[in-house]
Design goal:
three-stranded antiparallel β-sheet; 6 helices; Arc Repressor Mutant, subunit A; 3 strands; DNA-binding; homodimer; alpha+beta; globular
DNA sequence: CATAATGGTTACTTACAGGTTACCACTTTA
DNA sequence: TAAAGTGGTAACCTGTAAGTAACCATTATG
């Protein structure tokens, strides 16, 4: 439990995994799509997910550089769980826009 | 997504919810069962879960005091998700060590 | 020349979840 | 008289996830 939480229980990791659920994406694409994440935080998020075997980093030796991120097999097993989480969120708070202590920005 | 993570993406909340999945429990019982949690942290964990509508706090006006915690309807909807998370954890870490020594990704 | 584009790094700061320890009120039991 | 049992508070401290802003190397383009 602590381990799955170490992977999912962060601000950005579930979002990154969700974004990669059916297509690979480049660093800049993720950065643009998520919008409010800084490059530094995205970098560490991606690095940690790679270390955990959740995603794969493919670097093309070009100029300007290109790096593509994609889910590993293990990463893909997390997708249904994340979808369930998003669904729960939606069902239980969609109408109830009340003050949640940890709700600081819009849902994703 | 941020909201379900605010509830599940913490150290103790998923554990408390899991413990209450099929029976109510008193403060002291939770404290003893979890073991490594401090009373202060358990108190705030329970208070936040109550504010989020995940569990119900029933105080008996006795001496010595008695307080019983139980999941609300909404709290119960989180149980299957938590079970899935625990299952994922098990399959991808514990299980690997014991029964699947030759997994591809375990080679790293 | 200088700007854009890419995928970062470095240095610094801040917010807050979580932890430690001591203490409280009240009553029963020894 | 004092300890045990209950469900907490109060005061204080710490580690780290996350945020901000500036900078980097390389090449192509206007």
């Amino acid at each position: 439990m602590h381990r799955s939480m170490a992977i999912l229980g962060t601000k950005w990791k579930p979002i990154v995994i969700y974004m990669l659920r059916e297509r690979t994406a480049r660093f800049g694409q993720l950065h643009a799509a998520i919008g409010s994440i800084s490059k530094k935080v995205l970098t560490t998020t991606l690095k940690e997910l790679e270390e955990d075997g959740i995603l794969h980093r493919k670097e093309f030796k070009e100029l300007p550089p290109r790096v593509e991120y994609s889910l590993t097999e293990r990463g893909r097993t997390l997708v249904p769980i994340i979808i369930q989480l998003a669904k729960w969120d939606n069902e239980h708070y969609e109408h109830n826009k009340k003050n949640h202590p940890a709700q600081k920005e819009a849902a994703v």
